[in-house]
Design goal:
- There is one protein chain.
- The protein is an alpha/beta fold.
- The protein folds into 2 domains: 1-33, no CATH class; 35-208, 3-Layer(aba) Sandwich (Beta-carbonic Anhydrase, Chain A), CATH 3.40.1050.10.
- Helix content is 46%, strand content 14%.
- The chain has helices at residues 4-23, 27-32, 51-55, 77-89, 104-109, 118-131, 133-137, 142-162, 165-172; strands spanning 39-44, 62-67, 94-100, 178-184, 191-193.
- The protein has a 5-stranded mixed sheet with strand order 2-1-3-4-5.
- β4 (178-184) and β5 form a beta hairpin.
- The longest helix has 21 residues, at 142-162.
- The chain starts with a helix and ends in a 20-residue tail after the last strand.
- Bound molecules: cobalt (II) ion.
Length: 213
């Protein structure tokens, strides 16, 4: 094997382990005892949006789920399992959906090009477009329309989180769970809080509120 980039990753790992243990000999031993992260991060799989790095957090602080365009899809067993585990077992206090401007998944949804398997995933974002068509059509500038769809998509995912029985049960049990929507700007690294946070089902359309025990 001649791929030096690949070998470099393992080399980087050795250096990282050394730096961490030089600083604190018990670093890994302590982390291995268990996790109690206060946050579940639902972000895009994009390589330029590393959850820990952009929030200044360390191993043990963020429970992370990432997929194309940070989607909360109710038939996605992976996402639901992560959400259930994070809320009911790890007892996270915050669920943050973090999208990003320039998201390839959102951009793909704005076009009519067929993308094979990805069509099925992107379809969920097309629904967000359709639901907000009146607002989006008023934006002449394509870049600004794209940015707005990124924001509207995050907002829709926050609402989709609120529609799950997992989140509604936590609210009913008054665990203090809050859900939030953010957008990361690739061009300057700044996170914008969309101010769509929810800590109860109060603002959810009543058709989505579930009768829970
Ligand atoms: Co993306």
């Amino acid at each position: 094997m001649k791929n030096t980039y690949y070998h470099q990753l393992l080399e980087n790992n050795k250096n990282w382990v050394k730096a961490k243990t030089d600083e604190d000999p018990d670093y890994f031993e302590d982390l291995s005892k268990g996790q109690k992260p206060p946050v579940l991060w639902i972000g895009c799989a994009d390589s330029r949006v590393p959850a820990n790095e952009i929030t200044g957090t360390h191993p043990g602080e963020l429970f992370v789920h990432r997929n194309i365009a940070n989607m909360v899809v109710h038939t996605d067993m992976n996402m639901l399992s992560v959400l259930d585990y994070a809320v009911n077992h790890l007892k996270v206090k915050h669920v943050i959906v973090c999208g990003h401007y320039g998201c390839g998944g959102v951009q793909a949804a704005m076009q009519n090009k067929s993308l094979g398997l990805i069509n099925k995933w992107v379809r969920n974002i097309k629904e967000v477009y359709k639901d907000n068509k009146t607002e989006l059509r008023k934006i002449d500038n394509e870049k600004l329309r794209f940015d707005r769809l990124v924001e509207l998509n995050v907002k829709a995912q926050v609402y989709d989180l609120a529609k799950t029985s997992i989140v509604q049960q936590a609210w009913k049990d008054e665990t203090g769970l809050e859900i939030h929507g953010w957008v990361y700007e690739l061009k300057d690294g700044v996170i914008k809080d969309l101010r769509v946070s929810m800590d109860s089902a109060a603002h959810l359309d009543e058709i989505f509120t579930l009768d829970l025990d």
